[in-house]
Design a protein that fits this description.
The chain contains 14 helices and two strands, in the order E-H-H-H-H-H-H-H-H-H-H-H-H-H-H-E. By secondary structure, the chain is mainly α.
Amino acid sequence: MLYLPETMKNWPWPRAINPYYEEVTRESNAWFKSFKPFNERSQYAYDKCDFEHLRTGIDLMNVFFVVDEYTDVEPMPVVREMIDVVIDALHNPHKPRPEGEIILGEITRQFWERGSRTATPEAARHMVEAFTDYLESVVVQAGDRDNDTFRTVETYMHTRRQNIGARPSYVPGELHLSIPDYAFYHPVIKELEYLIADLIILDNDIASYNKEQAVGDDRHNILTIVMHQFDLPLPEAMKWVVKYHEETEAKFLDGLKRVPSWGKEVDDQVAVYIEHLANWPRCNDCWNFESGRYFGSKGLEIQKSRHVPLLPKRKQATDLHKEDVIVPLVDEM
């Protein structure tokens, strides 16, 4: 039995949801399904998950999902080719994609062609920059998989801050903002971003560990890293991660006191952005239990009990790719 600590119990920002969530989610999911990126069974597994934020944010979650599922089963050279396609589409959203190209290109092109219309120039630049960094980190993760690499906590967190997808996920909250570079790239603001990414990583890895260990895909998980580096059993590794989480929360709250002032116009925009950052760990924690991705139909029940049976190990299919990749249903594992 795996115990899931209530890491977010003292986080000051409560659960909130956009009133247009259901309507815009239906629109985004209809768009995504039109590409038929998965076979019928895997599409059903995908449909068991919901995604938050409005259209650009929800579309972004869909893009993350398909990039993740397509690249997780491929060796690094193939992942490199896939990611080059996605990066080109991101940087050239008005350029038609070549005939016969992997569908990731057109999905990404349509996502950002639509999303960039509602973004300020500053926010658009931040999306392209952050999403490109995320995509490059996916290639690094594939290399780790190929080389059977076990990272240390330090090197893992360094690369995971990119491939968790947090930085591009911040951008939907600033699409209407025009934060100048001297404020947006200030060291304190960057520190706050990375601390929030760390909280998302820790909670995501705690929630996903059971599913990942069952299919042998837990190498990029903080619990596995801590067990390996410090020679700890799972319960002790969990305590280590919880302490790290508490320390990270405290650093973020302290960082808020050190945000400089740049005058009312800039300060007001920065305050909106920071509030969006602070909402993300709560959003992530709720999604972990409500989406069905990690706990199937028992997410809310497990969120209350905090106990989940360890799933048995199962062999993951390695001969199915792209549209035929298997997206396992937790309820059937």
